[in-house]
């Protein structure tokens, strides 16, 4: 692996390991190197194996808007998983400069729906949709990442899952009420929460402890965008459609692509999202 890739600086820590910026020696392409220590409990290793299996399943399709997987290599007790590197950073990181304006949020959601429609068609539930897992490249392209907890429905006996994973604030009620099986609709709920997070700065209940959130989500009425915000009605409708407490009443990703809020941006290029990267750069410079 060292002859193929060069490991550079640490860029973050994911669910199962550190992520470094790296370079593909022969082409000079910048890649993300996820370095996982395999001296970990067996159940963690099976999670990692699942991520690798999913990523390689996705590699076979040059699909837009999903982080592309290059392969994985073993080096001693370390597994190096190599993926596209999105130099623009995650939407969550870019939000340090302030919440995302609606005109940008709409394009981010439009592009995320391309990835979700593709994953769902492939029988995969992402299970951890949030702003931190939506990445931008320097050209403004949107990539969905972190399949650490994604579940493939293809090889499960039924097309629903009953395991509890993901990040509580973004979790659909049916994921929390254990035993209640769930399907791709769980990602649609999380997308609704992610829009709320992008435009207000945080997901609902962000001021509450995780354990309390797990109790509140199934009990509370589904969140809506704050009344005082200057959000358009189509956007409010879109979020309300995603945050329907009845999973089977939520539209699927393909239906959401036809929603008025999304269709309004049909001609808007993702190049617009470069603004977010430069705003963040200016924020960093200003200290």
Automatic annotation (TrEMBL):
Positions of the Protein kinase domain: 5-262
Positions bound to ATP: 34
Pfam families (alphabetical): Pkinase (PF00069)
Protein name: non-specific serine/threonine protein kinase
Domain of life, per lineage: Eukaryota
Catalysed reaction, written as an equation: L-threonyl-[protein] + ATP = O-phospho-L-threonyl-[protein] + ADP + H(+); L-seryl-[protein] + ATP = O-phospho-L-seryl-[protein] + ADP + H(+)
EC number(s) on file: 2.7.11.1
Entry keyword Repeat: no
UniProt cross-references to PANTHER family, sorted A to Z: PH DOMAIN-CONTAINING PROTEIN, STERILE20-LIKE KINASE, ISOFORM B-RELATED
Enzyme category, top tier: transferase
Keywords in alphabetical order: ATP-binding, Kinase, Nucleotide-binding, Serine/threonine-protein kinase, Transferase
Organism: Acaromyces ingoldii
An annotated Gene Ontology molecular function: ATP binding
